[in-house]
Write a structure and sequence with these properties.
Layout: H1 5-14, H2 31-41, E1 53-57, H3 60-78, H4 84-99, E2 102-109, H5 114-137, E3 140-145, H6 153-159, E4 166-176, H7 191-194
Antiparallel strand pairs: 1-2, 2-4, 3-4
The structure holds flavin mononucleotide (FMN).
Flavin mononucleotide binds at residues 16-17, 143-147, 182, 185.
Length: 199
Amino acid sequence: MSMDTEELQNLIASRRTCYLFNPKETMPLLDDAVYRCLNAAIWAPNHKLTQPWRFWVLGAQSQSELAEVYAQLRADKRAQPQSEAHQSIYQAAIEKFHKFPRIVLVGQVLDEDEVRRKEDYAACACAIQNLQLIAWQQGIGVQWSTGPILQSDVTYRMLGESRDNVELIGALYMGYLKGDCNTQNAKRKPVEEVSRWLP
Ligand SMILES: Cc1cc2nc3c(=O)[nH]c(=O)nc-3n(C[C@H](O)[C@H](O)[C@H](O)COP(=O)(O)O)c2cc1C
């Protein structure tokens, strides 16, 4: 497929963070589609070719395990332990998490050097944006979340990773788009407001 400049601009500007997906039972996001997204992610620019990104594509079992982490953190934050409210928040959160058609966790390999770490984070962000754009072009929505599951020791243990080596920087909730994504976010300050053109 070839794309002209205007189409590319439209793709970039029309992409939105998505919160509503078609049900995975009827419109599953298959491995091939996820692979294609990752195969765009890895072409992100990265200084010294450090290729600092790592991806964990969750399957049914790992999604269930992570659902428990998600639900526990959510319920603990919002209600007293052992309370009825805790139980119902926990249960609702489990269901919400199971509904995400696919989840990809993204981590950054941590370099010892502080400057390199900053560059590597930037590179990982570029990789995520590559993924989001190629996804969007195929009608696949993504929500890049930096929610509390990324900070949990349980998540690191589940992945068999040490915080000394890797930092989790994104949970990508993905699926085929349902309706309009959050159109409130379809706005940006104009270029004139955020740029100065020097002589
Ligand atoms: C580093 C980063 C972290 C983000 N974390 C979250 C998050 O935790 N939850 C969420 O709903 N959206 C998150 N987002 C998505 C932003 O909220 C979203 O990009 C912003 O509202 C603009 O909307 P748009 O992506 O539709 O243009 C994150 C985006 C970035 C770049």
